[in-house]
Amino acid sequence: MSSYTLLYWPGIPGRGEYVRLAFEYTNTKYKEINVPNAFSPHLSPKGPHFAVPILQIDNGWTLSQTAAILAYLAPKLKLAGANEHEQATINQLTLTALDLSTEAHDVHHPVANALYYEDQKDEALRAAEDFKSLRIPKYLTHFETVLKGNAENNVLVGSAISTADLTLFQVLEGLLFAFPRRMGTMKKSGQYDKTFALHETVKNLKNLQHYLKSDRRNEFSMGLFRHYPELDSE
Amino acid sequence: MSSYTLLYWPGIPGRGEYVRLAFEYTNTKYKEINVPNAFSPHLSPKGPHFAVPILQIDNGWTLSQTAAILAYLAPKLKLAGANEHEQATINQLTLTALDLSTEAHDVHHPVANALYYEDQKDEALRAAEDFKSLRIPKYLTHFETVLKGNAENNVLVGSAISTADLTLFQVLEGLLFAFPRRMGTMKKSGQYDKTFALHETVKNLKNLQHYLKSDRRNEFSMGLFRHYPELDSE
């Protein structure tokens, strides 16, 4: 079996968490390096990688881009479905969940990642309105429709938990942290019951209990998902 | 051999073009459906797909998300490199090129996709400053570094053209259209010679000549890449 090392920022779940959940759920051993100096030689503009997370395999070859890491790992960790079509669809839905994750980030950084939130707060307030009223419902309706199409299994694709389910779970975790009032309204509406049920299912997976309750799991703070009360509303 | 049908908006290259180039370069037969009514049942919030492009295979199964479509097609069209590591790295770099494509779009739509450009022009002017001064150089330096690491081959990964090269080519085409003055400065600097050379290489690929010169190739207009002179500068 390969040895895996995840290179990621310290102290935030961020995009590293999507990879961690795949390892944790499948009881796959991995190490982490959270010391930026240790992975900065790999990073842009110098390195072959544009951003973390970076996965290092067997102390040699490295791979970046969250979706590429998950697509690479999924068949090895048996998180890729039962056949080629399921595998591609799991990749598709993982990418869609990651798009939602990126859009959630861009709400608090609509102008430039290089600027502070405080320097783009007016723009963020406008972006939040659109995100809450149009984008969250559009994405959740999409996932709800996918789940309804596979109602006998209560997972997004096929009959087993995949990277798509784990990724969507973490995005929902992030949205519940960042937009608790808006997500409360979404939940109460009853229109997204299967989506919120999937969130509960993953949260209660036996294999994840130890990790989710450990202090190895970083809490949300100033990363991808941020709670600015002024951006949230019912 | 499978039969492929690409479902995409009419009249713009958009994200459909990344898939078209893979088909065209490999002389793979495909059909297109560009009538929104024909693919709207598949689309969010109703359908199993969040957005076009959607690939329909053998008149049955469908797949969406540009990167998922390309990752699915790449090994079938021999655009996935020579082994598993090259395949994963090609997926990684394709995703990074697509991120640049999305960032280029978000420059003219920083607040909300649902709003007109004219309603977010002030924010777009601010976003363009960051995109031109930081993001374009950061991405191009990244791709330049990758190309330098594979200097004997003049492609991003391995020794043959892959989806990563075709995708980066199209993103560069889009940037040259949207930000001609800024890209002119980038080219003149001499710091990105391998990246611009790759653009030329793909542009001159024998297999692509017929398509690139045909009227089937949509010109850039009001899609992902837009030329607003006020957003461009040297």
Automatic annotation (TrEMBL), chains A, B:
The record's section on InterPro entries has: Glutathione-S-Trfase_C-like, Glutathione-S-Trfase_C_sf, Glutathione_S-Trfase, Glutathione_S-Trfase_N, GST_C, GST_superfamily, Thioredoxin-like_sf
Q: What processes in GO biological process is this protein linked to?
A: glutathione metabolic process
Q: Where are the transmembrane segments?
A: none
According to the entry, every stretch annotated as the GST N-terminal domain falls at: 3-81
Q: Which residues form the GST C-terminal domain?
A: 83-231
User: What one GO molecular function would you report for this record?
Assistant: glutathione transferase activity
Q: Mind telling me what this protein is named? A: Glutathione transferase
